[in-house]
Amino acid sequence: MKLFKQQEAQSIVVHGKNLVCPHCNHDRFWTKKVLLNSSISTFFGFDWADRAANCFACEECGRLEWFVRQ
Question: What is the superkingdom listed in this entry's lineage (predicted)?
């Protein structure tokens, strides 16, 4: 998947549990850290101050799973 720079998908553990896709039951994901932009911070140029989340894309079906804490 082009948006995710990793060459290979990985098994992911979130809060002590293995992440499994709820759609296809696959267990390997590409990962990317993304900013959770708000319109007010973007307006004032403070995008860097927004919170980040971990986004995981299923290698098999492409479903996205998001976690603010990991």
Answer: Bacteria
